[in-house]
């Protein structure tokens, strides 16, 4: 259970209700982190604007590479909510989610390309505490992806570190986005915020 209960629709401000409507329409359910940060509507809106802006701005990396490093970062930090949600997003983008089962063996798994292995090792190094990124590691990614690509990669990994650490601190765990064949949480019949587990 989260350490703070989510704000139900009945108690939400008009702005929060709009955010819930948008999230429900896009994902099939209101993500639990949204319902919890809704206790601070200005912060919720700042976060939503930031997430949408990052989504629009990340156009340089090869398809799926950003999703892959975000997923690996979530795995390293043990954020079950991020793993659940990230898997659902990858599935709906048509990416191969079967290979995610081999994420712990990415360095040797034939399911990952050389570039993906380099990016995943970089995600690990950025997520280490303290961080352990080397000059050589950065230079190789910069050579392959260019300045814009390596900046995009770095930003996505750093952002997922923030998300996963915040979810952990708030006690947010998986919400069930990847349960069942549909790989989505059904919208509750009463259109209220879902706060339980699938």
TrEMBL record:
Residues 58-124 form the Carboxymuconolactone decarboxylase-like domain. InterPro entries: AhpD-like, CMD-like. It comes from the Bacteria. One of its GO terms (molecular function) is peroxiredoxin activity. It holds the Pfam family CMD. This is Carboxymuconolactone decarboxylase family protein. It comes from Solihabitans fulvus.
């Amino acid at each position: 259970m989260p350490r703070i209960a989510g704000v139900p629709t009945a108690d939400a401000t008009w702005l929060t209700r709009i955010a819930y409507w948008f999230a429900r329409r896009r994902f099939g359910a209101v993500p639990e982190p949204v319902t919890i940060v809704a206790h601070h509507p200005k912060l919720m809106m700042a976060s939503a604007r930031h997430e949408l802006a990052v989504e629009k701005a990340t156009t340089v990396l090869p398809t799926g590479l950003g999703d892959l490093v975000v997923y690996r970062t979530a795995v390293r930090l043990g954020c079950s909510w991020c793993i659940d949600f990230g898997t659902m997003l990858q599935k709906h983008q048509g990416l191969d989610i079967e290979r995610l089962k081999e994420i712990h063996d990415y360095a040797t798994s034939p399911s990952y390309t050389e570039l993906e292995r380099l990016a995943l090792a970089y995600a690990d190094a950025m997520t280490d505490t303290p961080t352990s990124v080397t000059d050589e590691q950065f230079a190789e990614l910069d050579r392959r992806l260019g300045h814009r690509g390596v900046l995009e990669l770095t930003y996505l990994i750093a952002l997922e570190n923030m998300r996963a650490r915040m979810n952990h601190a708030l006690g947010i765990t998986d919400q069930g986005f990847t349960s069942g064949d549909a790989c989505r949480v059904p919208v509750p019949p009463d259109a209220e915020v879902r706060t339980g587990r699938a």
